[in-house]
Structures are given as structure tokens and as C-alpha cells.
Fold this protein.
Amino acid sequence: MKATIAGVLILLAASMTSRSQVKIGFEVSFTEPQAHYAEVQMDLSGLDKDYIDLKMPVWTPGSYLVREFARNIESFKASSDGKALRFEKVRKNTWRIYNNKAGQVRVNYRVYAFEISVRTAFIDESHAFLSSSGIFLYPDGMLNLPSTVQIRPYNGWKSVSTGLEPVPGKAFTYTAANFDILFDSPIEVGNQDIFEFTASGVKHEVAMYGGGNYDKERLKKDMARIVEQATAIYGENPNKHYTFIVHNFQQGGGGLEHLNSTVLGSTRDGYSDEKKYKEFLALVAHEYYHLWNVKRLRPMALGPFDYDNENYTTNLWVAEGFTSYYENKLLLRSGFSSTQQTVQNLADAISVVMNTPGSKVQSAAEASYDAWIKAYRPNENSSNSTISYYNKGEIIGMLMDIEIAKATKGKRNLDDVMNAMYDAYYKKQQRGYTDAEFKAMVEKISGISFSPFWDKYVNGTDEIEYEKYFGYAGVTAKDLYKGNQTPYLGAASKRVEGSVVITKVIRGTAAWDGGLNVNDEVLSVEGLPVEASIDKMYVITSRKPGDLITIMVRRDGLIKTIGLRLKANPNVKIEATIDPAASPEQVAVRKGWLGQ
Ligand SMILES: [Zn+2]
């Protein structure tokens, strides 16, 4: 026994030495930013094999689509001591370099970066946004190695903003303890407007690119409130420092969470509009809440990552949906939304799910698993066949929260589940959770079985019992469209080059039953010239369900006449109101759920 253990230890020590001798340094510079290029130099030393495989991730964590970042790489070269080395591509994202035991290898390549989004790199003469998983190569099998990154800003660019650790005394030079951290640390280079605030004992940097009519002092105060409320849920903030990279565009949106930073898209002139400002704060709340939910407390498949392939999980309804749900709780607790506004926002979210025909077809668990091929690759039929795990997950979070509050007479809620999960799986076991483990924790905190709940809402497509759940918490909910007999075709249309073209046919409607097709060019409705939005035409809205409507279309160059029998619009519009006459039991549930 002793000998065996000693042998294993020697082997382990040997492999650790050989690994730890490999040193990796990157240098990123820009000679043609106007043409959207970065030049990357990668130096490896301490190599002792005949060849080394360098790889580029095919996706970026948090955005569940294979994006093939290797397609942006060109002019790849490898050398050792100034002498060119032979290399070949051995996979779509893998370069094999034959270094013949040469210890040092230098690799140079260019990356084309011209895709504006929070998860892709973009470079122009004004700045460089380096989304790291699309910029840096990694040596196969050595994801746990540290690396250094030196940025050489283009002429006139003065600042670098990133969550990476700076190397003291070296300008624009950073370290990453391993490649997961490097790939989880985007880098903004340019002349961004930088300001800071401290909240929950952590220094936060905000780096604003693109200008905008934001009020720095107001943002500092408001963002700090959100940080403090999010931190309060988990009782600790996991960061030493945190960076918000904000891209302000004419029309911008979206965000991507990272380990100790985030990238947000916003609208340059939207900060003075109260509604848009609240939306920005909701985005801040969403991405900040991800610090715990998904960046640390995570489904089993989401870390350590496989950068070569899809990483499948059935739990994005927790990772993303609950994060969307917590936007509501954080805005409420930070004082940016009232309890009444919060319940109405949630009622609106329920209406969205119920008005999506795909919610009766695809479950939250299925939507999560198929994110790679469905949510991120939508087509004209997506709303008929899929449901967003953000929207459905938000509703599941709300129903679960109320159910827990009801079961415990307002003493516990979903915060307790998230906090206990963070403690049990991220901190103690240092691994992801399974769906069964998540369910078990909900049951432990609430003291009741959640099997029927999982069957209905997680794995099933049951209609949301909103009246029942709101009722538990003393909130009256009703469908304002109930009994509505407004006739409609159930088709979306838009004007394209002077013609009106069908863009969507909704499942179960007159347009669906009668065989109207997406891409049909509509020539007339009941003999009348067509308007851009067909369902709003008086000739439709003035009829009754059951009436026959004749539509003439051009399809593939042929003219067809289609008869459609109108149906009543089945959509709901839910209104939720806090009941002033709620019983003490209901009030206790509501206080347990929303705190007020
Ligand atoms: Zn998210």
C-alpha cells in the first residue's frame, strides 16, 4: 500500500513538474484596426514533445451556440528561435505544430473581428473589444495552465478594462490563473470613459464605450444598490474587483456574464428615458446575479467546460430563467420598482409565455437542452414549436418562490434555496448540480414534494395556474381578454419592397388551418388592397369568428386564392392587483415571497 501510494505521488509530481514548466505568454497588438484585425503573438516555453496542438474554442460560455471562432483566424505562423516550424490543421479549430522537442515556440496569427455583440470580438479605429474565447488559442490538454497577456493599444488608445489580474509595474499586462479564467475575461481597449464605485466592499469599474447621455453619479448610486441587494441574497460577494464593460450604440442591448466582469449593450441616448433607464438597471441586475447563479452555482455540464463541443444541460431554466426572475426581486428590493409594479411585470411575463404556442409543445427542460440548435437558431416556426427558457424559467422561479412561501407560511422562499445550493455545491462540493439535486434542495427547504410541480412546469407543458398561485399571495389576477371574440387570421406580415409578405403563421389559427405560408406575397384581402399588418385591417377586425375571408397571394410566381375561416384571438392579457382585503395567511405568503 505504502509503495503504491509513493509511486503514484512520484508520478503525479513528475507530471506536475512537466506541466508547470510550460509557460505561456500572449501579446495582442493592432496594426490595422480600421480593417478590424488584431495581431496575436503567443509564446510557449518548456515544451518537451515532438508536436503541440493549439486550439481555439468553438463557443463562448454563457451563449449556447457553436460559433466556430477559428474561422476568423488567418496568417498563422509558427517558429522557434526565428526558424519557421512546420504546422498543419488537424481539426477545424486545431493547429498541430511540429517543434521536434524544441522547448520554445512562437506563434503569430491575425484575428478578424467585426461582429458586434456582447459575445463576439469587434475592432475598429475607435476601440477593440476582445471577447477572449475568440482571440486566444490554448494548448490541448493544458487548460489549467496560467498565462500572461500583454495588450499593446493602438496609437492614441489609452485604456484597457478587464477583469483579469494586472501585473504590478507592467503597463497593460495581466495574468490569468488558467484558461477558463482567460476565456471568461473579455478585454476592452480604447478610450472608454471609466468611473468607479465601491459596493459590498468590492471596487467596481464601469467602462463606457460609445458615449451616451448617462449620469455617472446616478449610475454609481443605483448600480451600487443592485450590487448590495444581490450580495445580500448569498451573504458574500465572491470578487476582489469587478468590471462592467458597457457598449453604447444607437440601438443596443443584451449582456453576457463573466467570472468577475460583464459586457452590456445599451442605447447611447436611452439613459435619460426612465423606462429605458430601468431596463438598463434590470440588465445590470441580471448580469450581476449571474455572479452566483451560473458563474459559480451551476448545472453540472457548465464547468469545467468542453470548448470543442456543445455542453448540454436541462437546467438553463434555472441558470437563465431564475436570473431573469431575480431581475424583478432585485429591482423591487433596490427601490426601483413597487410591489404592485413587480406583480404586474410578472403577470406580463406570464402572458408572454401563454401567448406563445410553443409553450404547449416544448418543456423548460427540453428548451434548455436544445438551446444550441433551437433557441440560438430560430426560424419562422420557432414560436410555434419552442419556448424561451428565459421566459418560462422566470415564471417557474416565481411559482416556485410562491409555493415555498406558502408551504412554510412565509418563513422561507427561493432565496433560501439558491443560498443553500450555492453553499452545498459551489462552496462545499465545488462542482455543478444535477436537476435531481436542485429539486431535492427545493423539497428540503419547503418541506413538501415538488414532483407534481416538476411534472407540470419543468418537464411538462401544463398551462400556468396563475390565478391559484397569485391567490396564495393575496394577489388578484384576471385575464382582461377573457371571452374576447376579436377575430383574427393569426399571421404576421410586413412590407417588403412595396409588397406585403407573410412573416409568421401562428399555430392553430385561421392562417395555419387554411394554409397561408410564410413568404406568401399577399395581393388582396376580400378584394381590397392589403395593408402592412393584415390582422389590423378593418375588413378583418369588423368580422366575426366563423366568417370566411378570401385572400389572394402570389407564391413561387403563381397566384392562389385561399379561403380562411376566422377564429377568435386566443391571447390572454393578465392583470395582477394586490388585494387589500387579503387574509392574514395570504399576506404572510406575500411577505415571505416579496418581503412586502
Ligand atoms: Zn443571463
Remarks:
- The chain is about 30% helix and 30% strand.
